[in-house]
């Protein structure tokens, strides 16, 4: 019955779009993951594990006896970190966006979504059955135009703060002002900004001094563990307890991981040294690449460095050249990015030393010249 899948896979392969699982390659230097502060690959010590002293499993949904002190302590720390009243854990950023958007937005509403928003925001918007208006990337004037046109019950503006594929930022202050003017809610996904930007690494909303109506943060990127949270008012989190299906109908996250994550969050809040190292490493590599004629996405800054190659085959060749030189980097192709904008997405980690970064830069310059 499923033989047709073989033909489809062959077709993907011909188009240079086949995705294969990258196996563990500890021999390669990782410049593809989102481990911005270098925490994810540090082995957990026996002492830390003993300190965590928590059960491995929640055993049930958070609503049905699955909530422990470990979850509550982490949620309180996370809310404080992003300067919002309350937060609620989800099993992943994907589940957080799905749960949030599906629970809050509905038929008759409009969701105004940046063209480069993550798949989880797109899928959550579809699930909500609201009308979805996709607006040009980083264009507050377009958001203003859609909101000004009216014809909806309630309006929600959805954006990433630091965009995962282009490494550029939303103008959060402008979006907040526009939302206030039109009585719209602003949802900000800080997946790639949390731990990296803002005071204590508390994200770009904190850096911009704005309060979003809902903020999604992930714990598997700079925080280096797994899971995610939605933060906002306590009214919002009470609503999510009642209506977010990816929370209500899913086993609570591991209390042990929650304890471990709490330690990581506290460390990330204090770790300005890693943030400075990360910023310096990213700007040194950017300078080397641009001086070497490599084309990066416009306005990109910070640890996500998208090297534009255009067609899929070229991006795959560049990723392969990096692999041969000892680096693990990902070729990103459509549908993850728009047609004709295939790229190799480099992510810098605070753990990379200067010599490795210089070697990476030289290798990328050679690969792009071919
Ligand atoms: C912007 C954004 N939101 C959400 C997610 C999903 O987070 P998670 O990996 O925890 O599911 C990701 C990446 O994976 C992302 O880049």
Characterize the structure shown.
The protein has 370 residues and is α/β, with parallel strands linked by helices. The chain has 2 domains: 21-37 and 272-369, Alpha-Beta Complex (Aspartate Aminotransferase, domain 1), CATH 3.90.1150.10; 46-270, Aspartate Aminotransferase, domain 2. Helices cover 44% and strands 15% of the residues. The chain has a 7-stranded mixed sheet, with helices on both faces. Pyridoxal-5'-phosphate (PLP) is lined by residues 92-94, 97, 118, 120, 160, 164, 189, 191-192, 218, 220, 228.
Please outline the helices and strands:
Layout: H1 4-14, E1 29-30, H2 46-52, H3 62-66, H4 69-81, E2 86-90, H5 93-104, E3 110-114, H6 119-128, E4 131-135, H7 140-149, E5 155-160, H8 172-181, E6 185-189, H9 204-208, E7 214-218, E8 228-232, H10 234-243, H11 245-248, H12 255-270, H13 272-291, E9 304-310, H14 312-324, E10 327-328, E11 330-332, E12 342-347, H15 354-369
Parallel strand pairs: 1-10, 3-4, 3-5, 5-6, 6-7
Antiparallel strand pairs: 2-8, 7-8, 9-12, 11-12
This protein binds pyridoxal-5'-phosphate.
Pyridoxal-5'-phosphate binds next to helix 5.
Low-confidence stretches: none
Give the cofactors and ligands.
Answer: pyridoxal-5'-phosphate
Number of domains: 2
β-strand percent reads 15-25%
Concise summary:
The protein is built from 15 helices and 12 strands. With 370 residues, it is of the alpha/beta class. Helix content is 44%, strand content 15%.
